[in-house]
Design brief:
28% of the residues lie in helices and 18% in strands. The protein has 328 residues and is α/β, with parallel strands linked by helices. It folds into 2 domains: 2-204, DHBP synthase; 235-324, Rossmann fold (3-Layer(aba) Sandwich). The strands form 2 sheets. A 10-stranded mixed beta sheet has the order 1-8-2-3-7-4-6-5-9-10, with helices on both faces. Strands 11-14-12-13 form a 4-stranded parallel beta sheet, with helices on both faces. The N and C termini lie far apart (40 Å). The protein binds threonylcarbamoyladenylate (TXA) and magnesium ion. Threonylcarbamoyladenylate is lined by residues 29, 31-32, 34, 58-61, 94, 96, 108, 111, 113-115, 117, 119, 137-139, 176-177, 179, 190, 220, 222-223.
């Protein structure tokens, strides 16, 4: 595996060469780092599943360079897709449409639909323009682990399984894209993200259906599996009010406790490690995965996560935290 600064002039050309050869290239997007392969090459796409340890029926997002390219992948492009694309692309929104027959079932995990997104990160866009094709890219982490928001996280996760990592610095958004399914009669939110349901409803002038809960659609609906974005260390949500007492109780029991907070908490028995993220949801999201990863690397007995507010601005964060923690 090679890591190259994306500012290096030859780095994009090198990445394109590798993609054309069916190899894997990790690259930054505004949400998280993606593990990319030529979406039109089923062998290359199979390499993604192998590198991640991801089941073959778990579909990938195809990244495209612009809205016009939608017709290369989607059987038809409804007005709703054009409206959302006009407002939010390039940006952290993936839309699901019925696929063209030519689109390989390998990339769609056997589905008749395909997820599409134009990312806004300048490195991702430059790569897509130079490659001039679709790049299938899930988050560049091992299956069910924390998504990478820095190039070195990708190296830690995937090592030699990836042929090149384009280093574009830390991701700005920090949590994965919002996913909206437009392949059915009525638009449905599949995964909350930086773009909120309210913003989407405002553009579409209709109410969004909400994600279906785990069950028949477990594999298809993103992140529906328990512990989807989980650290290795047991993590638990804890209210602001209960946090000091919980820290003290665990510390008295001799446990090494890590805390992920967003308000400073003073305790007489300090935890082994405390990371305090900003109180603004956007800034919190930016630091969330790197902080969980940092705590996870400390061989702690438990990570206590201070429960953030349950408001719309925090929906994506609460969704990921729910999946990163065990129920009490
Ligand atoms: O922000 C993001 O979307 C990042 C960056 C790299 O773009 N990518 C990402 O990919 O989060 P991944 O594979 O970790 O998550 C994509 C989710 C999966 O949970 C998958 O179930 C869902 O998208 N998905 C993809 N195609 C689908 C389809 N045809 N129908 C339903 N869900 C689909
Ligand atoms: Mg992922």
């Amino acid at each position: 595996m090679k890591q190259r600064p994306a500012t290096d002039a030859a780095a994009i050309d090198h990445a394109v060469q590798l993609l054309r050869q069916g190899r894997l290239v990790a690259f930054p997007t505004e949400t998280v780092y993606g593990l990319g392969a030529d979406a039109a090459n089923p062998d290359a796409v199979r390499r993604i599943f192998a590198a991640k340890g991801r089941p073959a029926d778990h579909p990938l997002i195809v990244h495209i360079k612009d809205t016009e390219t939608l017709t290369d992948w989607a059987a038809s492009v409804p007005d709703t897709a054009r409206q959302l694309a006009a407002h939010f692309w390039p940006g952290p929104l993936a839309i699901i449409l019925t696929k063209k027959p030519s689109v390989s079932m390998t990339v769609t995990g056997g589905q008749n639909t395909v997820a599409l997104r134009v990312p806004s990160h300048p490195v991702a866009l430059r790569l897509l323009q130079a490659f001039d094709g679709g790049i299938a890219a899930p988050s560049a982490n091992r299956f069910c682990r924390i998504s990478p928001t820095q190039a070195r996280h990708v190296a830690e996760e995937l090592g030699d399984a990836v042929d090149l990592i384009l280093d574009g610095g830390a991701c700005q958004v920090g949590v994965e894209s919002t996913i909206v399914d437009l392949s059915c009669a009525h638009p449905r939110l599949l995964r909350p993200g930086h773009i909120t349901p309210f913003e989407i409803e405002t553009v579409l002038q209709t109410e969004l259906l909400m994600p279906v809960s785990a069950g028949a659609e477990t594999i298809r609906a993103p992140g529906m599996m328990a512990l989807h974005y989980a650290p290795t260390t047991a993590a638990m949500l804890c209210s602001t009010q209960d946090l000091p007492a919980s820290i003290e109780r665990l510390a008295i029991d001799g446990k090494r406790v890590g805390v992920l907070a967003y308000r400073y908490t003073l305790t007489t028995q300090p935890p082994s490690q405390i990371i305090c993220l900003p109180e603004q949801a956007d800034q919190y999201a930016q630091g969330l995965y790197a902080s969980l990863r940092e705590l996870d690397n400390l061989s702690l007995d438990i990570i206590l996560v201070e429960q953030p507010p349950q408001t719309a601005a925090w929906q994506a964060i609460n969704d990921r935290l729910q999946k990163a923690t065990i129920a009490r």
